[in-house]
């Protein structure tokens, strides 16, 4: 798990908002960045996974599909 720059957080939130009209919640956990969605959505999950893959990172979701961290 890793921290990402706040500008990257804002860019992710905007990209998801623009594409899906959904808010991504950001949780600063001191040593890493965590995110959550209000409800699971496979299309949004795929979008986020692809978004971070393009940045040579990886979004790792929990079993419920609502919470994720970046590796």
Computed CA radius of gyration, to the nearest angstrom: 11 Å
* Total strand segments: 4
Task: For the record, give the distance between the C-alpha atoms at the N and C termini, rounded to a whole number.
Answer: 5 Å
Average the pLDDT over all residues and give the rounded result.
94
Spatial ordering of strands, largest sheet: 1-2-4-3
Beta fraction: 15-25%
Q: Bin the helical content.
A: 25-40%
- SSE pattern: HEEHEE
Total of DSSP H or I helical runs spanning 4+ residues: 2
State the major sheet: 4 strands, antiparallel
Low-pLDDT regions: none
Class based on secondary structure composition and strand pairing? alpha+beta
Outline, from the CA principal axes? globular
Plain-language structure description:
Strand 1 (25-28) and strand 2 form a beta hairpin. The chain is 38% helix and 21% strand. The relative contact order is 0.23. The chain has a 4-stranded antiparallel β-sheet. It is an alpha+beta fold and 71 residues long. The longest helix has 15 residues, at 6-20. The model has no long low-confidence stretch (mean pLDDT 94).
Q: Topology, pairings included?
A:
Elements: H1 6-20, E1 25-28, E2 33-36, H2 42-53, E3 59-61, E4 67-70
Antiparallel strand pairs: 1-2, 2-4, 3-4
């Amino acid at each position: 798990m890793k921290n990402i720059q706040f500008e990257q957080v804002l860019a992710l939130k905007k990209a998801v908002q623009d594409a899906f009209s959904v808010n991504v919640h950001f949780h600063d956990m001191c040593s890493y960045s965590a995110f959550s969605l209000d409800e699971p959505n496979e299309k949004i999950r795929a979008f986020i996974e692809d978004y971070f893959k393009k940045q040579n990172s990886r979004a790792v979701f929990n079993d419920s599909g609502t919470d994720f961290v970046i590796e």
